[in-house]
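Q: Sequence in, structure out?
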Amino acid sequence: MFLSYSEFRILTPVFFEDMFIKLKQSLAIWIIKKFQKHGSHKVRVLGKTYEVSEHVFNPRFYYTSEFMARHIKVRSEDIVLDIGTGSGIQAITAGRKASKVIAVDINPEAVRFAAKNVRNNGLESIVSVMEGNLFSPIDRQYKFDVILFTPPYMEGKPGTDFEHALFDHDKQLAERFFRDAKEYLKPDGYIQMLYSSIARPQRVLEISRQLGWNHILTAKEKTFTEEFFIYKLTLK
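A: Exactly. Output:
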């Protein structure tokens, strides 16, 4: 069946918007993989040194890492969970003030390097690093004041350990995160999440709303290629 002219006029803006988003995501993925392969594997961010490999998300070359770290605000008594820790930058930043931080990543190499960066920054008594998929290694009895989350937001399915940091097909991982996070947050706790304009943040926020979360925008910043948002999410 062919579309009528009026139907075509309605669908055309959506079609071109989808195509533009896919093009921007493809370009971003290409740039990320080039930086991962050819960039320095020992970098400084916000005055601290981090070691990574080609297969661990490099905090120096992507705006998300520093932007998120600059907006972490925790109290001395807080217990913090960092989901998808990568190099450990968010866990280490939080660990300089919080009483306890647990950092989790599905990528075994990220876990090794995050643990090394924690030791290099003298925080091994405060920050623990675990391997696992989202909340899988965390005992359900453990409750957190703050959960830090910079989810992968490119459309696609991961084929390598590193690509778990890039792809979330149809927002399935984000949906699982918001469903499970309820079990690990203290009654007055909150999630701090970073998301990008090139990945339809309104959709992931709608998913969170349907699962019982409120959100407020706490920070945003625009770069040449996209705009980044930090949200604070609490249970209704």
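The mean pLDDT is 88.
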